[in-house]
Design a protein that fits this description.
Helices cover 66% and strands 0% of the residues. The protein has 567 residues and is mostly helical. The relative contact order is 0.14.
Amino acid sequence: MTLLSEDQSARPQPCRLPEPGKHISTSLYPTDCIGSKEYYMESEECVFGAVEPPRRSRGRLILHSMVMFGREFCYAVEAAFVTPVLLSVGLPRSLYSLVWLISPILGFLLQPIIGSASDYCRSPWGRRRPYILVLGILMLIGITLFLNGDAVVSAIVSNRSLKSTWAIVVVMFGVVLFDFAADFIDGPIKAYLFDVCSHRDKERGLHYHALLTGLGGACGYLVGAMDWGHSILGQLLGSEYQVIYFFSALTWGIFLTMHLFSIPEQPLSKDPHASDPSPPNVLRLLGSHSNGYGALAKEPVSNVGPASIPDPRPRSFSALGEANSVTSSAKQPNKEAQKRMTFRSMMKAIINMPNHYRYLCVSHLLGWTAFLCNMLFFTDFMGQIVYNGNPYADHNSTAYTTYERGVEVGCWGLCINAASSALYSYVQRFLLPYIGLKGLYFVGYFVFGMGTSLIGLFPNIIATLILCTVFGVMSSTLYTIPYNLIAEYQRKEEELLKLRGSIGSQRGCGVDCAALTCMVQLAQIIVGLGLGTLVYMAGSVIVVVISASTMSLFGCIFITLFIRNVD
């Protein structure tokens, strides 16, 4: 068996159906399946086996996760060079915060709509991969303009004043486009994983995502920390920025391609009647009896009988809805039973979500706010507080040189963070049987809150670098635990719906994954608008670690009181 081969023994077997001409019961399950006491415990094949994805090999899951390595690699390059690049083209400091606000605002407003639209994409290539490909190309265009915009404008425009203006516009557009696409692409990637993997493989896939996210960030920070200007590549390509762009574009292009061809995706059929000549199966006996969270329309379903059996909708394996898109209207077999989601209906779906999902979104918002408070200003904290440098001093002064040294050491601290994130994502698998998902969620927030508190109390070089490991614990927690909790919530609900004889409401995993991702954008907006004011009022950047610690500890309390525990 090769590394990429599927586990044939794990492939589901089809359910035995009544012979033609025999009476078909109007109950949800066939009588030959209900008779077994082990039906719910041992066999999901009877009802859901026909559409349950097969077990995926480790090689395919790793190939699927490689996109997170490339994405985080490019993210790390942007984080390391966005300030010097923007300031080098003459961007006023008063406009700097605008760059960080445009992308999250757009993402918060449009992310659920894009995610929901992917639920209804009818491309022969699948529902998620076309969106991932387009967003991946936009990421490449964005980082190209970001790192090469100044050189391109200088080669085209000769007028000095116009050159400066156009360089600012092009570089800012590249930064915003890159952030926009890199933030958006996370939702379709997660939805792609949930669509093509069984429940057990989703957990494995998320762990590989977190592992390769940490490794990608570490490699990106290492590449950014090296002096490429005096190297052979720097002389060959023109400058340090061109060398870094070469590595970024090459890494992203290769790993995006590996991701897109890692696991085949089932396309959404345009005409279920024309495309499915197979005999009726048990899925055609399933009906939707109620509208719930994420459901937009409730269409009548005719009584089930031998002469009237609705065709199945493609099943959507979402974080919140793994058993939701199975039924269609018998009266309108060629139309979707669910309308496309508009911004209004999307907001209604999110507002009306069950309480335990809403609480999870709030805790995710608290966690990302705490994490971003620290990460966006950490290098500045190292330069001013730990090294006692001054960023506003003359560039040939000792104070400014000391500040630059602190920023460089801060980059190495972020590299430690990325490496510890990759390591902790592996350790999580051993801790899970002992403390559970809610315990892991609490531990991540608590460790981060205590670590940032100690950094604020004892801001010396060695202690700060050692405590950078807690950043990785928080990073790995935010990238994995909330999605695992949602998958577990849905698994419990799916089992309950089976027992009740109902398949539940129709919704797709695009909007489900986007609901959590929206909290990341909202956290960026909060940090971008509020933290700068706090730093100005306090007169010191030490407030960033205090704010991060406070928000994280609030998150611990919230998790303890409101997050639902799962076995």
